Request: fold
Amino acid sequence: MRTYGQFCPVAKAAEIFAERWTPLIIRELYSGSTRFNEVKSGVPGISGSLLAQRLRMLVDVGVVDRRQPDGGRLIQYVLTPQGLELIPAIQLLGEWGMRWLERDIEIADLQPQLLMWDMHKRVVLDRLPRERVVVQVDFTGHRTVTIWLVLERPEPSVCDHDPGFEVDLFVSADTLTIHRVWMGLLSWRSALSDGLITFQGPPAYRRDFPDWFRLNHFSNVAIPMAAG
Reply:
């Protein structure tokens, strides 16, 4: 790890926190991911070897605890109290980015798989039907891909391939539009009324689908009006 060679605590903290990918890894751990592949799904641009390196570094400096519950083979990564103290900085960084940089979504930033990963982590379990609901999401426009959500208690999941269950609700979504909805830049109502997102399935599922999710953590950040 490169250092700034300064005694300043800002420099010392930046050597850890400002390392590329590290804030996103901490964000993902705080959002509930504990396994290596879960963190990788939430930080899709990082290679597996670099993620392993970053996690080792975070363990070494005491930000992350590496656990093997019950002595089994499963390894979990959990933020320590020291690591949890970084969460307000993550929150402020995200709010600043949303307020001053995220005026709109760029086509180059569209990532349907990451969007579905985020959505499945923001499911409001108490709002789901009692039965399992399988949702097929067909992205159209700038990125075309099909992804499935398996919405059930206690643990919803997301699949890049057909999970083998009968589909209960089909969602067709313009990729740019649904990203904008997720970030609070456009309402579900507007996207649906304009036909940029459509549902096919039982009326109750079509009506309730938007209410099954909390939007992105930063979707409620007020964005200043552009000058001029």
User: Anything to note?
Assistant: The mean pLDDT is 93. The domain at 107-212 is CATH 3.30.1050.10 (Nonspecific Lipid-transfer Protein; Chain A). The chain is about 40% helix and 15% strand.
